[in-house]
Write a structure and sequence with these properties.
heterodimer, A: alpha/beta, four-stranded parallel sheet, B: TIM Barrel, five-stranded parallel sheet, 12 helices, 19 strands
Chain lengths: 316, 444
């Protein structure tokens, strides 16, 4: 594996392999000294064209735990905001000797352009591109599900037969896309629930079942309910009438929460809008995996950095 | 300048020698003529492009009248229609006369400016259509291409008003609200790639509206770059109703599909977008059965930096003049859908007729007394299309690295050569011949 651009490219063995390495990385976090020397001398650049404190920090912690030199190259206040394009930025980072570039960009496909352009030879790690993909988020979500289901016996397991319902703005969600492909590869069954306006064109061709009604989906007793953040500005573009109606139809409120099985996981990629797509008690309930997701995010990102940089693109 | 062209195959399949003297075809071999051995070559009437972006004035970093004319000649064209989306916009007699006279001065092709329908392409007030029609540029085609005349009332008035001057509106059919943020064809793939969708209905709805408007006011309508199977159905229906509508398809929509967007390589970003294979097949069928009248390039040069970036940030458009005939050979001739006489119709006679360019009707093609405009093609060639095949400023071709049949061996414009042995003739020589031809016309 030279780059991580998309979960669509991952086969089952590779995906399970990443999750297993992340298990090892998670063990590091339980030690007194949470640091491995593995990536000493490697330079990892966080290239964030979009603000994202959570993801950027997660990569930063991951890189530092592996002893890599991590440099944040934020677009704001840099030459990028003065009109420097992707090409010049990439060539600049290449000249500085970056071994890996973690890129977050508002344009779908920007990481792939970096990886295939020849401007830079570093490993490219997609940390979220437009409305395309966010592969490490999907990997950490899968890791979280596996851990909850299989606990200490997680290694080597996929997600065969796990029923996952993803609710909300699928159309604009890179998290949903990465999850759909990865969960499908890992053997889970995925259903999407959203108003028709927030489902992608031709979603019927995806390896998922699609429904409009959240109550029906809850009655089907899923193993996982993943709520996606809803951006209030979507209502200005006529995707839905207002936040009240959205919340009533597609929000995970207390009544719907109570109807879930006690062991059903409630997931959210964050940041949450409490009271809109998820109620406060749903977010804070024992079903909620929100904080585990954050912790597991570090393990997954350590695993991916390790596999991209320490194994020299070799066996994964 | 005179030529004896020996043994060329004409579009109808017959083979004979062609003689050119003083700008026109003549019946007998002129004395001292330059001989061109055309055995194995196909002679086509000079190609006419109804949809070219020459970028001058204003965007000379992308293309100029000269560089675009050279690209056109290299592709076998003798006439191009220059789109109005320059800076300043071609919405006054002054701008269209400037573009026209630059074309005449350089001489590689006849440059026919297209006038903007609305002032500044802003879609609110009609531009000076009468002044442009009456200018030395004699504008007959009006288009806001790049933007759609989306206001129904303004479109109605424009259709009516150009009737006064024998003109035609060439509509860029794109409902603007339905295509906000659009990046590629809307479908399963746009959903997967996370690129904004450009739905077929945004094109089809405008075409449906406009053919009905054209019928209502009894005007002539031309539809630019038809790209979907649904649009073909609407045009077919309109023609069956007797509506005076013509339609064009670009070479790239006859060959390429949306799957190329998977690479996120912005060379494949174009407006309207590349569509599905079903659309490509429908467009080929429609061109073969005459529902679509012509092929037009939509040659859209851009500087490198407009394409070497993320897809969302890249400009729409591809260059097409140099590759058009070769792509048409691949998509339509080699596939058995069109013969060479059909190619002459869709790439020369019909576009000239729509643009009201004289001298390109089939009846007088290659006939003594007709202005000598032709191109010689070697249809047996089959080479990889490379940067060396591009002659304009733009290198944003989707065909680089792809094998294309055909080779343009010679192009003759108004009786003088612009391309010989596959190479462009020197700029000064072409300009001098153009001046000589103009002087001959005016003294005759």
């Amino acid at each position: 594996m030279k780059h991580l651009l998309s979960t669509k490219d991952l086969d089952t063995a590779t995906a399970v392999g990443i999750l297993d390495v992340a298990e090892d990385m998670a063990d590091v976090a339980t030690r007194e000294i949470k640091k491995l020397p593995t990536l000493r001398g490697k330079t990892v650049i966080n290239l964030f064209f979009e603000d994202s404190t959570r993801t950027r920090t997660s990569f930063e912690v991951a890189a530092k735990r592996l002893s890599a030199d991590l440099i944040n190259f934020s677009a704001k206040g840099s030459s990028v905001s003065k009109g420097e394009g992707l090409k010049d930025t990439a060539q600049t980072l290449a000249a500085m000797g970056a071994d890996a570039v973690v890129i977050r960009h508002a344009a779908s496909g920007a990481p792939q352009v970096l990886a295939t352009s020849g401007w830079i030879d570093a490993a490219i790690l997609n940390a979220g591109d437009g409305t395309h993909e966010h592969p490490t988020q999907a990997l950490l979500d899968a890791f979280t599900m596996r851990k909850r289901i299989h606990g200490a016996a997680s290694r080597g397991r996929d997600l065969d037969g796990v029923a996952v319902t993803i609710v909300g703005d699928i159309l604009h969600s890179r998290v949903a896309r990465s999850n759909v492909w990865l969960l499908n590869t890992l053997g889970a069954t995925v259903s999407l629930v959203a108003p028709a306006t927030l489902l992608p064109s031709h979603v019927a061709e995806w390896p998922v079942t699609v429904g409009y009604d959240l109550d029906t989906a809850i009655d089907a007793s899923p193993d996982v309910v993943m709520m996606l953040r809803i951006q209030a500005e979507r209502m200005n573009a006529a995707f839905f009438p207002n936040t009240r109606e959205y919340s009533r139809e597609w929000g995970l409120d207390d009544e719907r929460l109570a109807r879930l099985r006690p062991d059903t996981m409630v997931m959210h990629p964050g940041p949450m809008v409490r009271g809109l797509e998820i109620s406060a008690s749903a977010a804070d309930s024992s079903r909620s995996t929100v904080l585990e997701q954050v912790a597991n995010g570090v393990s997954i990102r350590m695993a991916v950095l390790y596999l991209l940089l320490a194994s020299e693109g070799g066996a994964l | 300048m005179s030529f004896v062209i020996r043994g060329a195959a004409l579009p109808d399949g017959s083979s004979r020698d062609l003689f050119v003297e003083n700008g026109a075809f003549v019946a007998d071999a002129p004395n001292g003529a330059q001989a061109i051995d055309a055995a194995g070559l196909t002679a086509l009437p000079g190609l006419v492009d109804l949809h070219t972006h020459l970028r001058e004035p204003g965007y000379e970093q992308s293309e100029t009248v000269l560089t675009g004319s050279r690209a056109a000649a290299a592709g076998g064209f003798t006439v191009v229609h220059a789109m109005a989306n320059t800076s300043p916009v071609a919405d006054t007699a002054g701008v269209v006369e400037q573009v026209w006279s630059l074309g005449a001065q350089h001489g590689y092709v006849t440059v026919r400016p297209i006038g903007a329908v609305t002032m500044g392409l802003e879609g609110s007030r009609l531009s000076e259509i009468g002044a442009m029609a009456g200018s030395r540029a004699r504008v007959r085609v009006f288009s806001d291409d790049g933007k759609c005349v989306s206001d129904a009332l303004l479109m109605r008035r424009a259709l009516e008003y150009v009737k006064t001057f024998g003109g035609v509106i060439a509509q860029h059919s794109q409902e603007p609200r339905l295509t906000e943020g659009a990046q590629m064809n809307e479908g399963e793939l746009s959903g997967e790639l996370g690129l904004g969708g450009w739905p077929a209905v945004a094109e089809e709805a405008i075409i449906a509206r406009d053919v009905l408007l054209a019928q209502h006011v009894g005007a002539r309508l031309h539809i630019c770059h038809v790209s979907t199977a649904g649009s073909v159905d609407v045009v077919r229906w309109a023609k069956a109703r007797g509506i005076d509508v013509t339609a064009e398809v670009t070479p790239h929509h006859l060959l390429l599909t949306e799957d190329l967007a998977r690479s996120y390589d912005a060379r494949y970003k174009v407006n309207p977008p590349l569509r599905r294979d079903e659309d490509v097949q429908a467009l080929r069928g429609a061109l073969a059965d005459g529902t679509i009248d012509i092929v037009a390039t939509d040659h859209a040069p851009h500087p490198l930096e407009s394409k070497e970036c993320a897809w969302d940030e890249a400009s729409f458009g591809m260059v097409g003049l140099e590759s058009a005939l070769r792509v048409v050979q691949l998509a339509m001739v080699d596939s058995g859908l069109l013969g060479w006489s059909d190619v002459a119709r869709v790439l020369s006679e019909k576009p000239a007729e729509i643009g009201r360019v004289a001298g390109y009707d089939t009846a007088s093609a290659f006939a003594p007394g007709t202005a000598a405009n032709l191109t010689l093609l070697d249809p047996s060639a089959n080479r990889v299309f490379g940067i060396d095949d591009l002659r304009g400023k733009g290198v944003n071709s989707p065909y680089l690295g792809r094998k294309l049949p055909g080779r343009i061996v010679a192009t003759i414009h108004n009786g003088y050569a612009t391309v010989l042995d596959g190479e462009l003739v020197d700029q000064q020589e072409v300009a001098a011949n153009a001046t000589r031809y103009e002087a001959g016309i005016h003294s005759a």
